[in-house]
Amino acid sequence: MRILLLASAFNSLSQRLHAELRDRRHTVDVRLAGDDEDLRASIRGLEPDLLLAPMLRTAIPEDVCAALTCLVVHPGPPGDRGPSSLDRAVQEGVAEWGATVLQAEAELDAGPVWAGEPCRLPAHGKSDLYRNEVADAAVRAALLAVERFASGSYAPQPQHGPSWREPVRVRPHLRQAERRIDWAADPTTTVLRKLRAADSQPGVLDTLVDGEWYLHGGHPEPLLRGRPGELIATRAGAVCRATSDGAVWIPELRRRCPPGGPATFKLPAVTALGALLPPLPESAVPLSADEDGRPSGWTDIGYREEGPVGFLRFSFPGGAMATDHCRRLLAAYRFALGRPTSVLVLGGGRDFFSNGIHLNVIEAAPDPAAESWANLTAMDDLVAEVLTTTDRLVVAAVAGNAAAGGVMLALAADEVWCRRGSVLNPHYRLMGLYGSEYWTYSLPRRVGPVRAARLIARALPVSAASAERIGLVDRVLDCGPAEFGPGAAHLAGLLAASPATQRRIVAKKAAREADELVKPLDAYRAEELAVMHRQFFTPESPYHALRAAFVRKRPAPAGLLAAT
Question: Would residue 281 be called left, alpha or beta, if left means φ above 0 and alpha means ψ between -120 and 50 degrees?
Fold first, then answer.
């Protein structure tokens, strides 16, 4: 069929559905919501069989709904209605949830139901759940709804009448007054639910240091204590704030935008506060829990071992890796190389693997071009270390999505394993960049030069199934988000125990030496960085305008993408 995806933003769910529908041989086009005339013109030109809206903040025009079947994906179970459904579910600690595909009607979320799928909501942030458990349910429901529509014989179920058995729950917009934290009275569990229900957007508005800030994300702290509401420590760019019965780590902050002022954006908490941050102790934790065995609480990088397998886990908000993230992860990787293992697993967490350089930190820097360069060269240093590891096998365990330099970090490993729900964006063009991280070596080595050029030029998301089919990844684990880490650990143990592993390590070293004789890795890096240097340090480069628009969640300036 010809399917038009309509979305307020081409977000993770929209990208995943785009890739999954193309895998099933549908012709798929994408339009961003907001310009009704452009939507009508697109429908006249494309003549789609179906409109599917995976992520929509505005209503579809009535005349469009009358002329074309329009299905909306709602991140809640059948009967659930409202713009803050998932926010409220997380804040209320709901454990059983779901996703629904319904027909667009004048009343929000009240149209006939084409499909609904259940899911669990474990104790994680809203955005993590949205990309994982909720997205899994939403994709199952959307694909089922598309099949039912294509059959021509399915009658959607109206949300009223004797046949409707689900309760109708209207969940109004969750305003900041309901999100507000009472630091003196709220226990840590309540504080975490409020923070997690707003982790990516909109954040929890609060008073901090010198004014009003939005708090983004939250993790429990088992040991540190202080006066409720006060900042008591820093760790890995996050700040620790005392609660009535404990403390929480807050990774990111965003200053409240004054009326009429410029848009603000999230930054690592320590970076956001800058000179306003009072003197606080840096509460470091051991990289490896084996060093002391004590519970150490949250950190963004950790290492553990199971026999001959090392696991280097990292998790950065939004998958973005600033200069400091890259340097600390490189130091951790070198620590892991000093351990007596034959297999090293890189990643393996629930959510994002990596999305490459940290555009928000770059945008906030006094000299964005210089910070872009520092960030990219730090990323290149990390990728080079993985590429030149020849004394063990390295596995990239990609539980969630990856993009740009994050994909190339994964491709530097010997094997890439990803979850069935992962979406890969192995390109840089949408940010006006040529790219680095040795992609000119790693990507053609994986998929061949012709397909590598096509992936870079087309700049489209790739599903896990397609990635495996074209050789971009080696193994796809068909499991839920909670099962991916243990599943990857089990497979890594089997890999380390295999008699063929030592032979593979020997062959890997010989292949790396042979490749180096043909063309040194330094040559790939120099060629990539020569182009990137021009793009970073040329003021009129499209990268700067595209980065600013991306960070501030504005539409990309017209014509710039076509010029890249």
Answer: beta
List of residues 6+ apart from 310 with CB closer than 8 A: 303, 304, 336, 339, 341, 343, 344, 345
Domains of the chain: 2-170 (3.40.50.170), 176-264 (3.10.25.10), 300-482+502-550 (3.90.226.10)
Token reading at 365: 């820097």
Buried-state track 361-392, b at ≥16 Cβ within 10 A, e below 16: bbbbbeebbebbbbbbebbbebbbbbbebeeb
- Kindly give, in sequence order, each residue whose CB lies less than 8 Å from that of residue 89, ignoring residues fewer than 6 positions away: 76, 97, 121
Name which of 68, 124, 57 is nearest 93 in CA terms.
124
d(CA 53, CA 14): 8
Q: Give per-residue pLDDT as tens, 367-413.
A: 999 999 999 999 999 999 999 999 999 999 999 999 999 999 999 99
Q: Among residues 123, 146, 102, 127, which one has the least CA distance to residue 12?
A: 127
pLDDT of residue 293: 46
pLDDT in tens, 321-353: 999 999 999 999 999 999 999 999 999 889 999
